[in-house]
Amino acid sequence: MKRKIIDCRDFPNEIGCTLLISGSQKEVFNISLRHAIEEHGHKDTAELRKQIKAMMKKEINIKQNIKKNKKKGITK
Ligand SMILES: [Zn+2]
Predict the structure, then answer these.
(1) Residues forming beta bridges with residue 19, ordered by sequence position
(2) Which of 12, 42, 65, 67 is the most buried (most CB within 10 A)?
(3) Each residue of 25-43: pLDDT tens digit?
(4) Where would I find the beta strands (DSSP E) of the chain?
(5) Which residues surround ligand 1, an ion (CB under 5 A)?
(6) How far, in Å, from the CA of 60 to the mean position of ligand 1?
(7) Across-strand partners of 7?
(8) Ligand 1 center–CA 40 separation, angstroms
């Protein structure tokens, strides 16, 4: 199953959050919504939900990075 990710660093935030959330689309959405409200202090609005959906990326980017690191000998 393909997972989705949300990286808080993609968006400027006042608390300097660097969290990366990954999982199924539903999981990522639910956790991110709660996280945005509780940690980032956002209000639960339709606009916020739309923004979270727009933030989601396919996990493939991470795997590509791991491959790159393997070549450099950073990870085994
Ligand atoms: Zn965050």
Answers:
(1) none
(2) 42
(3) 999 999 999 999 999 999 9
(4) 4-7, 20-23, 57-58
(5) 8, 17, 19
(6) 21
(7) 20
(8) 6
